[in-house]
UniProtKB/TrEMBL annotation:
Gene3D superfamilies, per the entry: GntR ligand-binding domain-like, Winged helix-like DNA-binding domain superfamily/Winged helix DNA-binding domain
SMART domains in the record: FCD, HTH_GNTR
Record protein name field: FadR/GntR family transcriptional regulator
Residue ranges annotated for the HTH gntR-type domain, each copy included: 12-82
Gene source species: Actinomadura rugatobispora
Presence of the UniProt keyword DNA-binding in the record: yes
Keyword Cytoplasm (UniProt): no
Lineage of the organism: Bacteria, Bacillati, Actinomycetota, Actinomycetes, Streptosporangiales
Keywords: DNA-binding, Transcription, Transcription regulation
Length: 253
């Protein structure tokens, strides 16, 4: 009986081992977005396991959002790289369970982004960062008449501002927070509610260009300017939804 329990334990552990191996290949970059792992018979042979063990391993990975199992004659296992949509899905569930409001999530952005602005302004070699941000503002100007495309371009500016601040962990956090706020608001409204009217978008771009001027001059006022900017953006974006508890639909994340 002890041996039977031991065998069952090893059997239960095999799917986790397979899942860990595949997960490692995805995270390390050995497998990229859209790559095919192969079909079930091939994977059974490759890993030397039974079909039930393989299917359990794939179920674990699919639950993590790292693969999609496509059924049918032309099916197979398709790889997905971790991104902000994945972290947003997990983060939103935790925030919702604790009754966190959208205003609270946006406030976190308002605390973090000005710090990135201060860091860039204080950096001696900041021209490359400013040039990249300026190119992103140009992109926003190009799509300013299209609310949905503008929302994407605008989110990219905010994310890169933090990334160029130099802290990669904060950059990932900002990506997640952006995804949660934008998708949560758009779930109950439309793109115009997220990015405001055309006049509002133009004012926002003037504020971004002012930020770039302050960054270029190395002016510490860049931090306060961006804090004020973010407060205004929060009022425009959230509106009556500010008090609503985070509720990012899992199926859309």
């Amino acid at each position: 009986m002890v041996a039977d329990k031991h065998d069952r334990g090893r059997s239960r552990g095999k799917p986790q081992q397979i899942a860990d191996e595949i997960r490692s290949m995805i995270v390390s970059g050995e497998l990229g977005e859209g790559d095919s792992l192969g079909r079930e018979p091939e994977l059974v042979e490759r890993f030397g396991v039974s079909r039930p063990s393989l299917r359990e391993a794939l179920r674990l990975l699919e639950a993590d959002g790292l693969i999609t199992v496509v059924r049918g004659v032309h099916g197979g296992v398709i790889v997905h790289r971790p991104d902000q949509r994945m972290t947003a899905r997990t983060g939103s569930l935790l925030l919702r369970s604790r009754n966190v409001s959208l205003a609270d999530v946006f406030e976190a952005r308002t605390l973090l982004e000005p710090l990135a602005a201060r860091t860039i302004a204080a950096r001696r070699h900041r021209r490359t960062a400013i040039a990249e941000l300026r190119a992103l503002v140009v992109r926003e100007e190009e799509v300013i008449d299209d609310p949905e495309r503008f929302a994407v371009a605008n989110a990219r500016f905010h994310e890169r501002l933090v990334s160029l601040g130099g802290n990669r962990t904060l950059a990932i956090v900002i990506e997640m927070l952006n995804e949660i706020v934008v998708r949560s608001v758009m779930a109950v409204s439309d793109a115009d509610d997220v990015v405001g009217s055309l006049a509002t978008r133009r004012r926002g771009l003037r504020s971004q260009r002012r930020l770039l001027e302050l960054l270029e001059a190395g002016d510490p006022a860049a931090e306060d300017h961006w804090r004020t900017h973010m407060a205004v953006v929060g009022r425009v974006m959230l509106g009556q939804e500010a008090a609503r508890v985070v509720d990012l639909l899992v199926r859309d994340a």
